[in-house]
Design brief:
By secondary structure, the protein is mainly beta. The protein has 8 helices and 59 strands. The strands form 15 sheets. Strands 3, 4, 7, 8 and 9 form a 5-stranded antiparallel β-sheet that branches. Strands 11-18-17-13-14 form a 5-stranded mixed β-sheet, with no helix packed on it. It is elongated.
């Protein structure tokens, strides 16, 4: 500081004094504006809670800026302005900070400055919290270790890699998690919403790169304790037993598990089933407090009660039993002597055949009870529990069960009934005794038949597995004195016989009109039945039922109803769906049972099991469908009717619904011809059956047509028989009219040797001329008749000569197409003389005016162009039969006789000059050979009164028809005029 000198001059001294005072005042004001820097900063860390406590001396400032950085990477973790609390004793400011990462992960640098509004002091000296990632700590590390956190927490873990190694990865359990770098060697990850861990906790594993080394930590995630149902009671009237439910599982075990304190005292725990906990205290205190705690928290419960209000007796011990047939005495002992003066109520549970019965008894110091209403020869199991009769708190525990079996006894009387068939046979039946009714092993049954007023009786013993004995009333002769028969049945076992049970059987069955049958509807309680009270039913009623399809010795079930009852619901385990049952009501009296009412019913109706037998019949244009009944066993329900369908492809069309069960036919009317398919389905309340199908093809109705044909044939046959009969009676007249005898010619001379040829010179009027017809084929020639008038007109006749009408008509040849169709033979004895068709070059000759007698005149003509001087050979064919066979031999035609014009109209000629002979010769052997020995027929066989004309050649088809007609007529004439051989 400069030295300040003061002058003694009087003029200057006040001025300088003022200046000094002003300077001192300014210096003091500047000193007040500058804030003090926090001093003596100290750090205190809790590694388990990851909490850092910072304290310092801060002067007069009230707020401070605080900065926390990761030392190695100089990354800011916290930078904020805080209001620190001041410790009144030490005068130090203090601020606490909880780190997200474990404090071991890396070193942290902390510095502080004072703040007053916008004015701040300098930063304090930096304080460093050393982490475990220092080079001096070179090992592989993971933090935090064995941390316990609640379920749902978020926890940050870090791995410090070994010095000189590379970081690999971090695994939480089996899951790889992302990591963040905190320092050169330190890496961290945060797991959020952690779930409960297992008993051994959840592992956090750190790997280097490559995975050659690893390290890790364990975290335990669980719940704080939450017990419930805390209560205290006494068993021996002195000590206390407190129980509670430990609640949810904390997932923390061992030294991290839950600790329990009862009235601030630790007690020995007993673990009971279903999370129940128990703690015993030697002396009853009345008020109780239970505290449950673990690392994550604690929970407390309280209870209070008087001793007499919390008595819970222990289970009776050493059970024993004194057994009889119908009862037993049960005895037991108590564990504590104090029970002898305690009023108790005890409950005994009996178990028999799966059924349980509870009975209650009471008394002071109760130790035994009597069990009545037991069944002989039956197995029982019994157990006991008790409670305080006064101020009842709860039942004690059940004792161990005790099993025993009652003694045997005589059987109960069997339930007896009878079944009668229509032929005076039947059976006495009874229900087999159950285990509770037999009272022991049944050895057999004894059945006795006796008649009132008779001393004789018939007894039969049957085995234990028998429940019916057949009877035949017609064979019981010794007991037939009365009109009633009594059957008595008793059961036997080792202890004796039962009381007898009887049923009356009438000896004479009376034919009574059958009763009307009603329908019984099955419900959940069986078949409900109702009837009118009957005065004769002095001992009640019997309701029996059986399968309706059974007819003889049926398996019957029945029940007996009291006399005052008029309704009952019958049930049976044997009821089956789809089975019809007959139910009968009988009155019970001193006389034989009397049938009062009948029902029929189904437990459940089903669709019919089978279909109706269906058939179809055609009736004109209608089709009649008829079908039979479905057997009762297959109906499986009450039939309501029939549905008739017609099938069209895959669809069924309903034709009719018949509700009249007596009508089993249906007519489908006015159908056209074709094929039809019909289906008939019977139905019950459950639906239709599968249906019976029949097909039929509708055909035209032919019965009347057949009858008409048969009638026509019958009339025709009768007419033919009548004509035949008339012809037979008039056979001489028929022969004379249609079949006259022709006289046989008698020829003189010896005809046994062959005759020479006869040269007959034709008369001038009997000339044959060859003429050409230009419209015909010149390759075929036919002979036709040329009348004389035509010859004169052509100036080629013999005009000088007189006309002789007795001479035969002259014949001319004409070239004409020959019909090559075969002509029916006119002479049955020779096929050579019956051919009328030659080759196309041949010439046919037709004669007119020639009479024949039973044969045809047949000869061979000369072929065209033959010489006039040609003579036929000397050998002649001998006539078969030797009858009269007229024949004409012509001479060879001359050229001057050929007429160039065709002949138009034939004329009749006289029969004069005709000379019959028996044989003829072939004009040309060559032609005969070419024709195969078939001589053309030049004449037709006719009767003496017949004349055949050769018509001129017209159209070809007309000529063919005339030849066929002429041939048929000639054949019929030959048949009638042929001579006897």
């Amino acid at each position: 500081m400069p030295h300040l000198s003061v002058s003694r001059s009087s003029n200057c001294s006040p001025f300088w004094l003022i200046c000094v005072l002003l300077g001192l005042s300014a210096a003091h004001a500047h000193a007040k504006d500058v804030l003090s820097v926090p001093q003596q900063v100290s750090l205190s860390a809790d590694m388990y809670t990851q909490q850092l406590s910072i304290s310092w001396f801060g002067g007069a400032a009230s707020t401070f800026d605080l900065m926390i950085l990761r030392t190695e990477l100089n990354e800011t973790v916290v930078y904020e302005t805080v209001s620190a609390t001041v410790n009144q004793e030490s005068g130090r400011h203090q601020w606490n900070w909880t780190s997200v990462e474990p404090l071991e992960c890396t070193s942290l640098s902390i510095k502080i400055r004072s703040r007053d509004g916008q004015t701040t002091s300098e930063w304090s000296n930096t304080q460093i919290l050393q982490g475990n990632d220092l080079p001096s700590n070179a090992k592989f590390q993971a933090y935090p270790q064995d941390r316990i956190v609640p379920v749902g927490a978020n926890t940050t873990f870090c791995c410090i890699v070994e010095e000189g190694k590379k970081f690999g990865s971090i695994h939480y359990g089996s899951t790889v998690v992302n990591a963040t770098r905190l320092s050169r060697r330190s890496y961290a990850t945060t797991v959020v919403n952690q779930g409960p861990s297992s008993k051994t906790g959840t592992n956090i594993i750190c790997y280097d790169d490559p995975k050659r080394k690893l390290t890790g930590a364990v975290v335990f995630v669980g719940y704080p304790p939450l017990p419930s149902d805390f209560v205290c009671e006494t068993n021996d009237l002195t000590s206390a037993v407190c129980q509670w439910n430990k609640g949810r599982d904390t997932n923390l075990y061992g030294k991290r598990g839950t600790r329990y304190l009862l009235n601030n005292r630790a007690c020995t725990l007993s673990r009971l089933p279903e999370k129940q906990m128990e703690c015993r205290v030697a002396q009853w205190e009345g008020n109780w407090t239970l505290v449950a705690e673990n690392t994550l928290g604690q929970y407390s419960l309280t209870d209070s009660a008087e001793l007499s209000h919390r008595v819970h007796p222990v289970a009776p011990g050493k059970l024993n039993c004194i057994i009889q047939a119908w009862n037993a005495t049960l005895l037991w002992q108590w564990k504590y002597d104090s029970y002898s003066s305690l009023a108790l109520v005890c409950q005994v549970e009996l178990t028999c055949l799966g059924y349980k019965i509870k009975r209650t008894f009471s008394g002071v110091g109760l130790r035994s009870v009597a069990l009545s209403d037991l069944h002989p020869d039956e197995d029982y199991s019994v157990q006991v529990r008790c409670g305080a009769q006064k101020n009842f708190w709860k039942w004690g525990n059940w004792s161990e069960p005790l099993s025993f079996k009652t003694k045997t006894y005589v059987p109960d009387a069997p339930d007896v009934w009878m079944w009668m068939n229509k032929d005076y046979t039947g059976q006495v039946i009874w229900k087999p005794l159950t285990r509770t009714q037999s009272h022991g092993l049944i050895t057999g049954y004894e059945v006795t038949l006796w008649s009132p007023g008779e001393k004789l009786q018939h007894t039969k013993t049957v085995s234990a597995d028998t429940s019916a004995v057949p009877i035949n009333l017609t064979q019981i002769t010794t007991l037939s004195g009365g009109n009633k028969l009594t059957a008595t049945v008793i059961a036997k076992n080792a202890d004796g016989v039962s009381q007898p049970t009887s049923v009356l059987i009438p000896l004479h069955l009376t034919d009574v009109e059958p009763l009307a049958v009603s329908r019984a509807v099955y419900t959940e309680r069986g078949f409900p039945l109702f009837w009118q009270s009957d005065a004769n039913a002095t001992c009640g009623y019997v309701v029996e039922w059986c399968d309706a399809t059974c007819k003889r010795d049926c398996p019957v079930e029945w029940i007996k109803v009291a006399a005052e009852s008029t309704n009952v619901s019958i049930e049976s385990d044997n009821f089956q769906p789809g089975v019809r049952y007959n139910i009968s009501l009988y009155s019970c009296s001193s006389e034989a049972p009397e049938l009062l009412q009948r029902w029929q019913g189904y437990m459940q109706e089903l669709v019919p099991y089978s279909s109706v037998p269906l058939s179809t019949t055609q009736q004109n244009s209608d089709i009649l469908l008829t079908w039979g009944e479905i057997p009762l066993a297959n109906r499986r329900g009450f039939l309501l009717g029939y549905n008739i369908y017609i099938s069209s492809g895959s669809q069924l069309t309903l034709l009719a619904n018949l509700t009249d069960l007596g009508s089993r036919s249906y007519t489908v009317k006015d159908l056209s011809e074709g094929s039809y398919k019909f289906t008939v389905k019977a139905y019950t309340s459950a639906g239709e059956d599968t249906g019976a199908t029949a097909s039929i093809t509708l055909e035209p109705y032919t019965d009347w047509l057949i009858l008409e044909i048969l009638a026509s044939l019958g009339i025709t046959a009768l007419f033919l028989v009548f004509v035949t009969f008339i012809c037979y009676k008039k056979r001489k007249w028929v022969k004379k009219a249609f079949y006259p005898d022709i006289p046989e010619p008698k020829l003189p001379g010896d005809w046994s040797r062959p005759q020479g040829p006869l040269d007959v010179k034709p008369s001038p009027h009997s000339l044959v001329h060859m003429v050409e017809r230009p419209e015909w084929d010149s390759s075929k020639e036919v002979l036709v008749v040329i009348p004389e008038e035509d010859e004169d007109e052509e100036e080629q006749g013999m005009g000088d000569e007189p006309v002789d009408t007795d001479e035969p008509t002259s014949l001319r040849y004409y070239n004409q197409v020959v019909d090559e169709r075969p002509i029916r033979p006119r002479f049955p004895d020779s096929s050579d003389s019956s051919a009328s068709s030659l080759d196309s070059a041949r010439t046919d000759v037709t004669y007119t005016g020639i009479q024949t007698s039973g044969s045809s005149l047949v000869f061979q003509l000369d072929p065209p162009g033959s010489s006039e001087g040609h003579q036929p050979p000397a050998d002649l064919s001998v006539c078969s039969g030797g009858g009269y066979r007229p024949q004409m031999q012509n001479r060879a035609p001359s050229d001057d006789l050929v007429s160039p014009e065709p002949f138009l109209e034939p004329q009749d000629a006289s029969a004069g000059g005709y000379k019959p002979q028996c044989s003829w010769h072939m004009d040309s052997p060559v032609e005969a050979g070419e024709s195969g020995g078939l001589a053309p027929s030049l004449g037709s066989p006719t009767s003496v009164a017949s004349t055949q004309f050769l018509l001129p050649d017209g159209e070809e088809h007309a000529e063919e028809k005339r030849q066929l007609s002429s041939s048929a007529a000639t054949w019929f004439t030959n048949l009638l005029s042929s001579t006897k051989p």
